[in-house]
Amino acid sequence: MTSTLPDRRNHAFDPDARLAEEILRGQLPHGEWRYVAPRPMWAALRVSLRSAPDPQSSQVTEALPGEPVELLWENAGGWGHVRTLHDRYLGWARLDELVHQPPQGEGLTITALRAHAFAGPKVSQPVLAELAYGAQVFSTGAEVVEENHRRWQPVELPDGRPAWVQEVTLSPLAATDPVTFALRFLDTPYVWGGRSAWGLDCSGLTQTVYAACGRELPRDADQQHKALHPVETPVPGDLAFFPGHVGLMLDARRMIHANATHMAVTIETLGVGDYGSRLQASCTRFGRWPE
Hints:
Elements: E1 13-14, E2 19-21, E3 34-36, E4 39-43, E5 47-50, E6 59-63, E7 68-74, E8 79-84, E9 89-94, E10 98-99, E11 107-109, E12 114-118, E13 127-132, E14 136-139, E15 145-147, E16 150-156, E17 162-166, H1 178-183, E18 195-196, E19 199-200, H2 202-212, H3 221-227, E20 229-231, E21 239-242, E22 245-249, E23 254-259, E24 264-269, H4 273-282, E25 285-288
Parallel strand pairs: 2-3
Antiparallel strand pairs: 1-2, 4-7, 4-10, 5-6, 7-8, 8-9, 11-14, 12-13, 14-16, 15-16, 16-17, 18-19, 20-25, 21-22, 21-25, 22-23, 23-24
Organism: Deinococcus deserti (strain DSM 17065 / CIP 109153 / LMG 22923 / VCD115)
GO biological process, one term: proteolysis
GO molecular function: cysteine-type peptidase activity
């Protein structure tokens, strides 16, 4: 048994209910614990994971449509304690927003920052779902339909509903770098706990941008701080860290970040203007992806 409890953002245990995931056996304080094994689930839509099983509690992260999650346990109110698999982050989600099994067709990844799934192959058809970069839809095997020089792909949504997306939203993502990809999110709304172009927070932006470049970062700013090598002088693509905040450096002084000051993704120059000066004064370090 360790003297320090595991990080509850990534390790599932409830001291009040004496409930914990099986992997923590032997790592928790002595006493009667009931250990459970996680069950696979998938996000049916863009699912908000919250700090507590209460719609008024704060959002801690999101699961994108079609992303796999693990269900640890559930309560009588229709909430489940779940973990996103890509970064092993925990939160509470509504069980009716999850599915036990996604469609069996080939998974297709949305590469547009934002997209919609429609009820039919026409932009005037009802919108069935909001999609975002990284979300998954599933091929039906049916042929693409052309309409007014647009190509429509028939798909199934993660919850099994038939839908149509424009083929352009599935176009392969060209090789990119963190700076180029981050700039695509400029002016995206700031949303606490968000991790899509419909709204994201500071670490959601840096995590998403690095993932597009094949670099897997943990969810929160302090976790990302620990994952990167400290450097004195930043180069494009390095991260800049502040108390409870993170941004991505465009060059030695300019930084792009999702922030609650402007409620959007903006660019600041460290040391310039009131906000830039405050940021420079509070910067704790720069971090670089280990080569």
